[in-house]
Amino acid sequence: MDFRLTEEQEALRESVRDFAREVVAPVIAEHYEKHTFPYEVIRQMGKMGLFGLPFPEEHGGMGGDYFALCLALEELARVDSSVAITLEAAVSLGAMPIYRFGTAEQKAQWLPKLLSGEALAGFGLTEPGTGSDAGGTQTRAVLDGDEWVINGSKAFITNSGTDITALVTVTAVTGVRADGSKELSTIIVPNGTPGFTVAPGYSKVGWTASDTHELTFDDCRVPAGNLLGERGRGFAQFLRILDEGRIAIAALAVGLAQGCVDESLRYAKERQAFGQSIGSYQAIQFKIADMEAKAHTARLAYYDAAARMLAGEPFKRQAAIAKLHASTIAVDNAREATQIHGGYGFMNEYPVARFWRDSKILEIGEGTSEVQRMIIARDLGL
């Protein structure tokens, strides 16, 4: 196995790295403090083709693959995670379900705008009372003639309330199976549909420049043709989407962890204490060396999971391992980077304060660390 990047992959990584440093870095702190969505940054990401990276050109994509998306996410997250999660959710959770399971008509209607970044889509799975227990979905959809009537609510939904949000795909109970279990299906709900209400944005610890809302559906009616994929296969469809998304979140976590190394190196060379730079002290050197080792091994984990996925091999366990390990070391590195910065690490003017606030959600979102351990154990036969 050779994990060295091709020339094309290296060029992509460098272009996104330059964009993150030159376009994102100068403006993101203000967005973060004001809790505003960086529309201009997102627009430029769309022009770069980042939202279409893993999709075929026939649908308006860039003809790349999922690994290309992961490389972009890592480089963005080295500077800021709010922008990175906007891209990750828009692609992995927003456009990918339509690409994987949509009809030709649904793809033609929605993908061009989603893949160009002109529009965003949300992923309506989590509910206020059902987090990790996604099978406990309470939202219901009843077929009334040629329309689905949806009632229920969703929580913590990314990209669901921006000015450019086009739709949310929603999991809902659409019936009961012969064995008494719930029949779960997925339905496309366009933004602005009567009965579909987007609550004000959450007050969050981190990711404050990303868009997150609770959604309510009150006799919300959409055409029967808005069913996404096969009826009754909604839960299975989203499990597949989440398996892929864990690799992307692992890449984002590696980016944050590497960003902590970047900032700590810079600060250790500049900060003077007791007559010399703090980087000359072995205690600081060892901290940064450990941080680099953690970021490197986590990167190899998501590279491996992505390679297996693209080769058509089973990758569920490897994706869970990558997500579990990368999110853990992201939190570790953020804590150490803050410690290296001392009092300045507690000040929001320094990126490591933002990294610290952003890191914890990586152990929760798109499957908690406990869920990843459960997946790994089950795949081992336990």
Question: What top-tier CATH class of the largest domain fits best?
Answer: Mainly Alpha
Level-2 CATH architecture of the largest domain:
Up-down Bundle
Oligomer kind = single chain
What structural class do the secondary elements suggest?
A: alpha+beta
| Main sheet characteristics | 4 strands, mixed
Portion of residues in helices? 40-55%
Cofactor: FAD
Domain Acyl-CoA dehydrogenase/oxidase N-terminal: 6-118
Family: Belongs to the acyl-CoA dehydrogenase family.
Domain Acyl-CoA dehydrogenase/oxidase C-terminal: 232-380
Could you explain the architecture of this structure?
The protein has 382 residues and is an alpha+beta fold. The protein folds into three domains: 7-121, Butyryl-Coa Dehydrogenase, subunit A, domain 1, CATH 1.10.540.10; 122-233, Butyryl-CoA Dehydrogenase, subunit A, domain 2; 236-379, Butyryl-CoA Dehydrogenase, subunit A, domain 3. It is 51% helix and 17% strand. The chain has helices spanning 7-34, 39-48, 66-77, 81-101, 104-116, 234-270, 282-310, 316-341, 351-359, 369-379, and strands spanning 120-124, 140-144, 147-158, 165-176, 182-190, 196-198, 212-223, 227-228, 272-273, 276-277. The strands form three sheets. The protein has a four-stranded mixed β-sheet, covered by helices on one side. A hairpin with a 2-residue loop joins strand 2 and strand 3. It is globular and about 80 Å long. The model has no long low-confidence stretch (mean pLDDT 96).
